[in-house]
Write a structure and sequence with these properties.
Shape: globular
Distance between the termini: 60 Å
Number of strands: 12
Order of helices and strands: HHEEEEHEHEHEHEHHEHEEEHH
CATH superfamily of the largest domain: Glycoside hydrolase/deacetylase
Structural class: alpha/beta
Largest sheet: 6 strands, parallel
Length: 267
Amino acid sequence: MKLPVIIAVLLGVLFPAVVAAAPAAREFSSPILLYHRFGPTVADSMTIKTSVFEEQLKYLRDNGYRVIPLRQVVDFYLRKGPAPPPKSVVIVEDDAHKSVYTDMLPLVKKYNVPVTVFVYPSAISNAKYAMTWDQLRELKKTGLFDFQSHTYWHPNFRKERKALKPAEFDRLVESQLRKSREKIEKELGVKVEMLAWPFGIYSDDLLRRAGSLGYRATFTIEPRHATRTDSVMALPRYLVSNGDRGAAFAQLLAGRGSGRNVAYLKR
């Protein structure tokens, strides 16, 4: 009997629990839930009723799910940490909408769940629909919020590529990714190394550019779980809607949410 086989047999006899757990430890499948805005009524397809969001948080709590920080997932892909435990879920928000402060924050504190907010700085303390830098600082003080890049002014890179010359487009991309990171780090004192692509639009050259500018992970919009076979530079996220409640939410968490987000992805 060869030495590696002997060692494997001995490990199985001496440490059966460790050997049995090894395959499970190598597996990873987790939904990243993307939200945009909240309110008492459904103003548009991007709005979720605050009451529905609380229903979802209750469901996660009551059914044994664990909401973990997005950084924990990224560290796993970068081999800086172990695979997140089974039934792990990630919550993120794009755009830093003002309803994050008025509606989402109280529930995040109530249920003690971590959230990553992807910010495009041109809107902050400027657009009526967005939060202010002071509000973002208040969120940071809770210890439950992280802040990452959503580019500088949320361009549609598909449309910009068609409208601009190649050199102009390259300059736009670099400016959007660099200025966003620099502004967020300056205002909030966080390390920005993750990027959510506006409208979920990305391409191989955009992924390479993001990597060259120091981003360790980027995120798309695709209706499926993140698994160990995904690239850390193109991790999928579910676009959560107000209809994701009860059985529909359970199906999403179980990985049966295909066919979603189609209209959004055609932008």
